[in-house]
């Protein structure tokens, strides 16, 4: 029996969703279905199961039984979602594969327009830490990846169920405090107010995209804008940098205040240029920007408490640029409590 079972495999570009029968993968399916419908793309549901390691020939028969049962169970799980997708008018295919689930989805992403996977932790902090499958796909995927966390939405008008993000300690604490330095314009749309969220970090109903001044991140911003258009949400471009780091600390407060505009100008210029470009490309969405004094990971992680979606680039390091997650994207994926769009990018 072949360890890979294909059902009407589509050779064109489509939306790949990793499925394992969990609540997180069901949420990933619903997100993938919405993307497929909005972009008029086929849906590819992928179920993978690991190969058992047998050390004795006595267990060969057991291996055959395991493969039969695993294939049957995975196909049954996938078929339950096929009718739902077809009922929405979306063409759907399924693949049942024996192999490492993370690596399987990485390979499947080669021919996909976008991949979607749930985030599932394996300890008491489940949902707050990145699982191995979502981590591998986000880091090594060949297409943009959407990582869906545990459901936590609250209809409360006073407090969020999502707790404030953990801050760094020790030497790293100095780069973690957040304060807004400049913004393009106040929000023009309505939003909920929360007692446990600072007003400048309240991105209720917005799609937030992290903009790095040292990168040509046009693909990240463009895809974030497409997501905002799909969700009918405003788009917020966000940059952050600890302005007192990298030998930029001034003992004289007056001297620091005089130098501050020069320190932040590259970031605000980049944000303004990107916002104007996106507004021309997507005239139907509202675009604004904010710049913070603080760590990018801290700002974007905190933004995930209220945002509809956070978008980041991978920004790998060294000779593996684009193949491994950078520190910011890794931290955001680990800590985020809203869906995260990860776009493969290269370090400039």
From TrEMBL:
Q: Which stretches make up the UspA domain? A: 13-149, 207-344
Q: Which InterPro entries match?
A: Rossmann-like_a/b/a_fold, Universal_stress_UspA, UspA
The family note in this entry says:
Belongs to the universal stress protein A family.
What PANTHER family is this protein classified in? STRESS RESPONSE PROTEIN NHAX, UNIVERSAL STRESS PROTEIN UP12
Q: What is this protein called?
A: Universal stress protein
């Amino acid at each position: 029996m072949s360890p890979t079972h294909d059902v009407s495999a589509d050779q064109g570009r489509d939306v790949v969703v990793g499925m394992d029968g969990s609540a997180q993968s069901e949420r990933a399916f619903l997100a993938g279905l919405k993307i497929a419908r909005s972009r008029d793309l086929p849906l590819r549901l992928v179920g993978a199961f690991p190969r058992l390691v047998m050390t004795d020939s006595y267990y060969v028969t057991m291996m055959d039984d395991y493969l039969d049962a695993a294939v049957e169970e995975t196909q049954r799980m996938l078929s339950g979602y096929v009718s739902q997708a077809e009922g929405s008018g979306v063409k759907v295919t399924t693949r049942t594969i024996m192999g490492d689930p993370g690596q399987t989805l990485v390979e499947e992403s080669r021919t996909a327009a976008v991949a979607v996977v749930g985030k599932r932790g394996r300890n008491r902090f489940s949902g707050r830490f990145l699982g191995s499958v979502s981590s591998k796909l986000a880091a090594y995927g060949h297409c943009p990846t959407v990582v869906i966390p545990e459901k936590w939405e609250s209809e409360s008008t006073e407090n969020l169920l999502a707790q404030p993000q953990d801050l760094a300690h020790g030497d790293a604490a100095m780069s973690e405090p957040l304060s807004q330095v400049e913004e393009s314009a106040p929000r023009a749309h309505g939003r909920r107010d929360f007692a446990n969220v600072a007003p400048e970090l309240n991105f209720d109903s917005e799609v937030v995209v992290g903009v790095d001044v040292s990168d040509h991140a046009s693909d990240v911003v463009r895809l974030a804008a497409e997501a905002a258009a799909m969700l009918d949400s405003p788009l917020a471009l966000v940059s952050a940098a600890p302005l007192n780091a990298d030998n930029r600390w001034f003992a004289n407060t007056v001297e620091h205040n005089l130098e501050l505009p020069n320190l932040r100008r590259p970031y605000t210029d980049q944000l303004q240029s990107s916002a104007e470009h996106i507004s021309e490309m997507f005239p139907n969405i509202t675009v604004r920007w904010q710049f913070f004094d603080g760590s990018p990971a801290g700002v974007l992680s905190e933004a995930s408490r209220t945002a509809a979606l956070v978008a980041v680039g991978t920004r790998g390091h060294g000779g593996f640029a684009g193949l491994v997650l950078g520190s910011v994207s890794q931290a955001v994926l680990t800590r985020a409590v809203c869906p995260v769009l990860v776009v493969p990018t290269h370090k400039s």
